[in-house]
Write a structure and sequence with these properties.
Elements (H helix, E strand, L loop, with lengths): L4 H8 L5 H6 L5 E3 L2 E4 L9 H11 L5 E5 L12 E6 L4 E6 L2 E6 L10 H10 L5 E4 L6 H9 L4 E6 L2 H13 L6 E5 L2 H8 L6 E4 L9 H7 L5 E10 L6 H15 L3 E14 L2 E12 L3
Parallel strand pairs: 2-3, 7-8, 7-10, 8-9, 10-11
Antiparallel strand pairs: 1-2, 3-4, 5-6, 11-13, 12-13
Helix pairs in contact: 1-3, 4-5, 7-8
The structure holds S-adenosylmethionine.
Length: 289
């Protein structure tokens, strides 16, 4: 999320009325040299003016796209409309010394998860076999391969376009020997070829990870290992979203006869009013009872 938001409002203050200025969203994503802005319905016709102000605020931004729909569907893609600058949706994003080529119209990508990706990479120990069940264009996997001594990072995604970019990204980052992109449904891939091989399983699909917990357990080695489980949770005043996810997931793991300890839980980011993305790090001592 860019820090120069005041710069943006400053640039717009003589162009928009005070009430319009109030409606301008404070944050927007910058992926490589593309900015993705959200514009409230009342300001849609002012999109171009806002986009030009974004480009003035961030001189390296060459394209501004407007997010026309929320991230949606199994592939977690958002509808985008071109607003200003070069007409394209492909870019190259840099993060922690890695480069990610991505087409924002065809693949999921969030620059907001960089710290979480690095946090996971820092946990990986020498010689580990990792399975990333929902790998996208390979961000977690490539950061792990670059910043740890993992033996292998099997990286599954159901979106052929994401897998195509992931293949290219493994080459761009010279981690072809460590990261193995696999196209398919994580459940099928694990059942067909990755049962009992992993020291660590990543589940970065908060909308659906719960449905796939059974397959994460099947992917772990007989002696156990780690699961990084992502979920979304709402929390009313006084409620703890981490505790809610912990209770829900623990119940599920117990029903699958796993022996485990939820080692830690944290809010990865706030995604709406009282709505959070949560990660749990779970040490599974016995995955299959
Ligand atoms: C929220 S994105 C996360 C991508 C990546 N880990 C990242 O952080 O950039 C989830 C990804 O899961 C993929 N996906 C959805 N359902 C899947 C399934 N059943 N099996 C494998 N991948 C799936 C989507 O195509 C999408 O790329």
């Amino acid at each position: 999320m860019p820090k120069a938001k005041h710069g943006l409002k400053e640039k717009l203050k003589d162009i928009l009325s005070p009430s319009e200025l109030n409606l301008v969203y404070r944050s927007y994503d910058i992926v490589g040299d593309i900015a993705v802005i959200r514009v409230p319905d009342r300001l849609v016709e002012k999109s171009r003016l806002i986009a030009e102000a974004v480009m003035e605020t961030h001189k390296h931004v060459k394209t501004v796209l407007r997010q026309a729909t929320p991230v949606r569907g199994d592939l977690r893609i958002r509808g985008l409309e071109w607003v200003a600058g070069e007409k394209r949706t492909e870019t190259i994003h840099k993060e922690y010394g890695c480069i990610f080529k991505v087409d924002l119209e065809r693949c999921y990508f969030s620059p907001r998860l960089l710290h979480e990706r690095m946090r996971i990479a820092n946990l990986v120990e020498e010689g580990e076999t990792v399975i990333n069940m929902f790998a996208g264009v390979g961000c977690y996997s490539i950061i792990i391969a670059k910043h740890s001594k993992a033996r292998k990072v099997y990286s599954i995604d159901i979106n052929p376009e994401a897998v195509r970019y992931m293949r290219e990204n493994t080459k761009l980052n010279r981690v072809e020997n460590t990261v193995e992109p696999i196209e398919g449904d994580a459940r099928d891939v694990i059942l067909e070829r990755l049962r009992g091989v992993a020291d660590r399983v990543l589940m970065p699909l908060p909308e659906k990870a719960y449905e796939y917990v059974e397959y994460a357990l099947k992917a772990l080695k007989e002696c156990g290992g780690w699961i990084h489980y992502y979920d979304f949770e709402r929390a009313l005043r006084g409620e703890d979203p981490i505790k809610k996810v912990k209770e829900k997931l623990s119940k599920r793991l117990r029903s699958l006869k796993a022996e485990f300890t939820v080692s830690s839980g944290r809010v990865v980011r706030t995604v709406g009013p009282r709505f959070y993305q949560i990660v749990l790090d779970i040490l599974v001592e016995r995955p299959r009872g």
